[in-house]
């Protein structure tokens, strides 16, 4: 095979440059969601699957579907999260590829498998996504039962590797955006306290920090509550009798 080509999941030849260009276009999108959706488009276009989704591992190992080719796929994923069992969860936890040739007869996940089959899913190939750390999984659903051979797996690995790059990019973008949002909200909350109690910025930040520590609530959450409601319950917890 030409070194500039790789296999598609259907056995045909896909130019590696085309896949690389798809990744470049995905990471250049204006929003993380647009980038992730392009990754889904790549997975469906270049893979022998009917539906695809991306599961991202978040804080405290919480999992969420951050992009999908349709609502049925989202439902199949969410059933795993709600039930606490399924191939996506196993792949994310073990960093191993998980394949299911026939969901109607699969016994590893007795609660999830029949429900997924009821949704019209026949088989699934789940690829772990990672860079230097685990990121999540790429979930390739087929509507009919099928066997995944070596060619399928090798091609899926290529698509998953490129999807990992896109997911890493979007997660970094999300984290940076969230950090900027948090700093902005904290600044706004400081301003509210400064104007209301005629205190300095340092004093206002100290009030928010003490409230956060006393109630064991993240500082950004405290700030957002103050911005949205105009007050903090039991402000004296953090301030003493008065912030001034």
Written account of the structure:
The protein is an alpha+beta fold and 244 residues long. The chain folds into two domains: 5-174, Beta-Lactamase, CATH 3.30.450.40; 177-239, Orthogonal Bundle (Arc Repressor Mutant, subunit A). Helices cover 55% and strands 16% of the residues. The chain has nine helices and seven strands. The strands form two sheets. It has a five-stranded antiparallel beta sheet, sandwiched between helices. Strands 1-2 form a two-stranded antiparallel sheet. Strand 3 and strand 4 (63-68) form a beta hairpin. Helix 6 packs across helix 7 and helix 6 (150-197) crosses helix 8 (219-229). The chain is elongated, with a radius of gyration of 23 Å. It starts with a strand and ends in a 5-residue tail after the last helix. Mean pLDDT is 80; it is low at 1-13 and 237-244.
CATH superfamily of the largest domain: GAF domain
Average pLDDT: 80
Low-confidence spans: pLDDT under 50, at least 5 residues?
1-13, 237-244
What composes the largest sheet?
Answer: 5 strands, antiparallel
CATH class of the largest domain: Alpha Beta
In angstroms, what is the radius of gyration? 23 Å
Strand order of the largest sheet: 4-3-7-6-5
Distance between the termini: 75 Å
The number of domains = 2
Which strand-content bin applies to the residues? 15-25%
- Series of secondary-structure elements, N-terminal to C-terminal: EEHHEEHHEHEEHHHH
CATH fold-level assignment of the largest domain: Beta-Lactamase
